Amino acid sequence: MSDYDYIPKLYDVHYDAPETDRQSDEFFWATVGGCKQRFNIHDYATLYRIPWLYDIALYHNLVCRTPTEMSAAIDKVWAAAGVDRSGLRALELGAGSGAFGHELRHTLRIPHLEAIDICPEAAEAANRDRAGLYDAYHIDDLTNLSPAAETTLRKAKFNVVAMASATGWGNHIPLAGFETSFDLLIPGGWYIFHVKPNDPDPECIELCAWVADKVNNGALKQAYRGSHFHRKSSNGSDIYYDVVVGVKQ
Ligand SMILES: C[S@@+](CC[C@H](N)C(=O)[O-])C[C@H]1O[C@@H](n2cnc3c(N)ncnc32)[C@H](O)[C@@H]1O
Fold first, then answer.
1. Which DSSP symbol is given to 199?
2. How far apart are CA 69 and CA 208, in angstroms?
3. Which numbered atom of ligand 1 lies nearest the CA of 92?
């Protein structure tokens, strides 16, 4: 039994060997509606249009374990800190189809959970495959929020801002988006960040420096940092990311 057995096994998914080591250059084959097609793992809009396809390709084929790894780490930190979860109000960044949201809601028992993603198909996938998971799903660019979204998100007074698997590689949330998300969190709130250390990707380097700076200048009090298995690469190697759980000062 795996914690991901609730995701159906469909489409006979199998991967191509990657042409480079870049995580964004992985491709797989899937048979959808009788037609065998090739997909890029970072072509989110296309993947989210097909029920469960992103989840199958990530959580079954590449055994991505980030949602459960992160929720287990957060659970320990909150248990040790005696956090009263009944008052938690969370915003999940780059929420996609909702696999991490599933853990935030069902494992960590966060009573109020909102999501934001730049991609309209992400909200469609979450609402279709995990109906009722989020209290609200905002479709907006974290680097350039619409005035209406900004007002709504500020009013929500989030005391948790959490993100899994949405840093780096040129098509995830850029630095400016994380700065905005940090600003949306109330002081004393939990900031939960996920980043790949020691990778030559310029965005990963920049984001590692950004979170280190937040800790060093006292804006974020780090309660936990640990290396966790993220997923297999399509060439079979293991990919690890750092999970950071901190409190905004
Ligand atoms: C790897 S996927 C999401 C994975 C998801 N967190 C999960 O647990 O399965 C990264 C997401 O970041 C979103 N994203 C990229 N740039 C963004 C931006 N500027 N603002 C908001 N979301 C963004 C993408 O649309 C994509 O859905």
1. -
2. 19
3. 6
* Whole-model pTM over 0.85: yes
Domains of the chain, each with CATH number or no CATH: 14-61 (no CATH), 66-248 (3.40.50.150)
- Take residue 75 and report the two structure tokens written for it: 């659970």
8-state DSSP, 129? H
How far is Cα 132 from Cα 242, in angstroms, rounded to an integer?
30
Mutate to test the pocket of ligand 1, among 113, 144, 172 (most ligand atoms within 8 A of CB): 172
Identity of the amino acid at 161: V
Q: What is the pLDDT of residues 4-32, one digit of tens each?
A: 999 999 999 999 877 666 666 899 999 99
Q: Is 214 exposed, middle or buried (0-12, 13-18, 19+ CB in 10 A)?
A: buried
- Residue position matching structure tokens 């940090």: 182
Contact (CB, 8 A) for 242 and 167: no
